[in-house]
Amino acid sequence: MDFELNEDQRAFRAVLRDFVDREIIPVARDWEHAGRSPAEIVEGMRKLGLFGITVPPEYGGLDLDPVSFALVFEEIARGWMGVAGILGSHTLACRMIAAHGTADQKARYLPDLATGARRTGIGLTEPDAGTDLQGIRTTARRRDGHYVVDGTKTWITNARHADPLPVLVKTDPSASPAHKGMSILLIDADTDGYQVTKDIPKLGYKGTESCEIVLDGVRVPAANLLGGVEGRGMQQALSALEWGRVNIAARSVGIAQRAHDEALAYASRRRAFGRDIGDFQAVQLQLATVATQVQAARLMAYFGADAVRRGRADGATGMAKIFCSEVALQAAIDAMKIHGGHGYSTEFEVERLYRDAILMSIGEGTNDVLRTVVARSMLRGETVVR
After folding, report:
1. Looking at the domain 7-115, which fold is it?
2. pLDDT over 70, % of the chain
3. Architecture of domain 235-379 in CATH?
4. pLDDT tens digits for 115-166?
5. Residue 40 catalytic?
6. What is the CATH number of domain 133-231?
7. What is d(CA 116, CA 46) in angstroms, rounded to the nearest whole number?
């Protein structure tokens, strides 16, 4: 058993870590509080080729293995989780187009998506349908070589930049079970009737927008039906969400690692009763617990990522997402406790980490729902515990 990254992965992580330390960490807190767009960071990620990490080389991408994919989100989230979200939705959509798109769709979209000249996201969630994707109400009716789309999507990351946006729709609302009537359409941003209506205010996850999109009689060419066959939208979306759970698990590890780093640094410089607070056993116990949990979460994230490489991985990625997200939140809370009153101040990093960590247990499927996914994987014979 080898628990080490290979040489290429270590070199890649070093490049990512240097970028985060130089370009993200020095500005993240101030830019987040100011509501400033991280345009320069996005440009830096574009120059590193990170917008193409799930795009095949023939279209100009890096096509990273799942563990290297996880490294990207771990390191970027260590600096600023919201900025990692810009890459998250984009790379999952690219993966979906690369895996399921027609030759024409790949040729039209993937080269620009790989360079970051275009950005994208995924239009799944609706006001009345989040984890229950079969409950969506957005419809697409075929007319004269087009689909006419009506509905509303919400909590869409990258909505103001996505072009195209893969949108989950019902092409046959009467189908039973419902997933057999669901498809994905690639909708160009300049299409009449496609409107980004508002940015949703959020507790955390700043640096990227989360928006509502209204689709009012939007005419989408039939050539933009992902894969060219109706009724496969749910399977196409779920295949991307396996990578999405790795993304969230890795982001959680990044948050937890940063919480540990901040707590350790603070314990080494804060003095009380004439001593560094790190000399007190109570603080040492908290630091050791956080460090242990972070390392366990990291191994779990990499295990889930490697399961994706090996094949069907619902159980392993679900377990990774559950465990890592809960470690991230606890690490942020413990780091805040070590900081004492300063931890509650916006002048220190840990309050931002706390706000960002909460989303990790909600996004990409709530943890309670994912526990049922893990259980069902085991019941159908998938090996998730070894």
Report:
1. Butyryl-Coa Dehydrogenase, subunit A; domain 1 (1.10.540)
2. 99
3. Up-down Bundle (1.20)
4. 999 999 999 999 998 888 999 999 999 999 999 999 999 999 999 999 999 9
5. no
6. 2.40.110.10
7. 6
